[in-house]
Amino acid sequence: MAKVLIIGAGGVGSVAAHKCAQVPEVFSEIVLASRTPEKCEAIRDSIRERFGRQIEVARVDADRKSELVELIKGVQPAVVLHLALPYQDLTIMEACLECGVDYLDTANYESPDNPFFDYHLQWPFHESYREKGITGLLGSGFDPGVTNVFSAYAAKHYFDEIHYIDILDANGGDHGYPFATNFNPEINIREVTAKGRYWENGQWVDTEPLEKKWTFDFPGIGPRDAYLMYHEELESLVKNIKGLKRIRFWMTFSEKYLKHLEVLQNVGMTSIEPINFQGREIVPLHFLQAVLPDPASLGPRTKGKTCIGNIMEGVKDGKPRKIYIYNNCDHQECYREVGSQAVSYTTGVPAMIGAMMLINGPWKKPGVYNLEQLDPDPFMEQLNRHGLPWNVVELE
Ligand code: NDP
Asked: For labelling alongside 111, which of 45, 184, 226, 231 has CA 20 to 30 A away?
């Protein structure tokens, strides 16, 4: 049993807080802190109404290490679940190191003025975390997160060597708006408008944004167009899955979504370069975010399912083998349980399970790790128990 500190009261932070509250035998006390205290209070009230549990709330600016250190020292949690934005990864990792507390996040560090994102500033914490005897879990969401665990599970139980991995992420949900993003619009749009990238035969191959398309028949959803994108789990899986020859990531977008995005891009609304507007400096993408629907408001409106999983091909006992491991998650069922749609749910649940792996012991190992570096079995077992059951299918 342990106390946890959750930072960030958006879609993902809300799901993680609700899910932790449902497992009191592991999470005996929960503190939720964020920049806007009213959002924490609304989540606190929802948890009290749904599950009859009381959580504490606090205010913190996670861009300021000194505020974080004061908060962590006051709360004295066993783990900090960083579910704010990727811009805060480094300040929170540093604060956890100073306080000697385990750390977990769901997205790798991104600098606010440079959309490039990778692990090169987070992996170097490994030695200092190891010396301090604390654990840092990088990317404990769905993708990255569960997709990394699916890879490790396949490598452990289904293959002698995995040669090809395709990660496919489909959102078959419909929220009824002409255009909205399912999680933080700024992060989402940055990701989608970036160049594509995959890894083959020992090197990275760049593509134009959304240049490569694959129409795939997703279980529980049906055929959808998926587009090749760069995604952060590729960087660690290339290092940690031995024998890999190619790995790619695909995400579905509707024609309607892509048409709106194209127009917004063409008129300059997705730019992160500041402009002067009536004597004030504004970033067009920040302005766009302010006028788009808040992802947290999509919950009651979104119907349909998500389907995220890995198709993996390789050899077992000298014979070729191809399997697909995936999860289907229903937007409306998530909303009924925790008041959020499936995109936040599929991220918040693995964040809770990652924290559970640290508190209960199986993943408590000093240093900084991506999820495929740890034993996948206890994590896979908890996915089935806490709302993200998975299937394994042998493919021809
Ligand atoms: P939201 O934008 O809904 O929520 C972000 C929260 O962080 C808000 O409560 C926000 O506060 C808070 N926040 C932002 N800046 C600060 C700060 N300086 N100090 C304290 N709090 C701050 O995002 P999501 O919940 O959708 O996403 C959360 C994280 O999960 C992101 O990093 C995202 O990239 C990641 N993610 C990972 C996925 C995966 O599968 N691995 C999938 C989806 C998301 P305020 O309300 O004041 O703005």
From this structure: 226
Q: Which atom of ligand 1 is nearest to the CA of 84?
A: 7
Q: Give CA–CA dist 4/353, Å, rounded.
A: 12
C-alpha–C-alpha distance, residues 69 and 116, integer Å: 27
> Which of ligand 1's atoms lies nearest the C-alpha of 86?
32
**Two tokens, residue 187:** 């992060």
C-alpha of residue 315 to centroid of ligand 1, in Å:
39
Could you tell me the distance, in angstroms and rounded to a whole number, from the CA of residue 18 to the centre of ligand 1? 16
Same fold, 2-142+346-379 and 146-340+390-394: no
Please report, for the chain, the start and end positions of each structural domain, with discontinuous segments joined by +: 2-142+346-379, 146-340+390-394
Task: Give the pLDDT band (50/70/90) at residue 229.
Answer: very high
Asked whether the whole model's pTM tops 0.90, one would answer yes
Give the separation between CA 321 and CA 275, rounded to whole angstroms. Answer: 53
The atom of ligand 1 lying closest to the CA of 146 is 40
CATH architecture of 146-340+390-394: 2-Layer Sandwich (3.30)
Ligand 1: list residues with CB < 6 Å: 8-13, 34-36, 39, 60-63, 83-86, 88, 106-107, 139, 141-145, 183-184, 187, 295-296, 344, 347
Q: Has residue 186 got a pLDDT over 80?
A: no
pLDDT at position 115 is 64
Which atom of ligand 1 approaches the CA of 182 most closely?
A: 26
pLDDT digits (tens, 9 = 90+) for 35-56: 999 999 999 999 999 999 999 9
- The top-level CATH class assigned to 2-142+346-379 is alpha beta
Res. 387: pLDDT tops 90: yes
Assess contact for 197 and 210: CB atoms under 8 A: no
Least trusted range by pLDDT, from 161-165, 190-194, 222-226, 228-232: 190-194
> DSSP string covering 372-393, please?
GGS-HHHHHHHHHHTT--EEEE
What pLDDT, on the 0 to 100 scale, is given for residue 193? 83
User: pLDDT, tens digit, for every residue of 53-103?
Assistant: 999 999 999 999 999 999 999 999 999 999 999 999 999 999 999 999 999
Closest CA to 146 of 352, 361, 393: 352
Q: Which of 44, 83, 85 to mutate to test the pocket of ligand 1 (most atoms within 8 A of CB)?
A: 85
- One-letter amino acid of 199: W
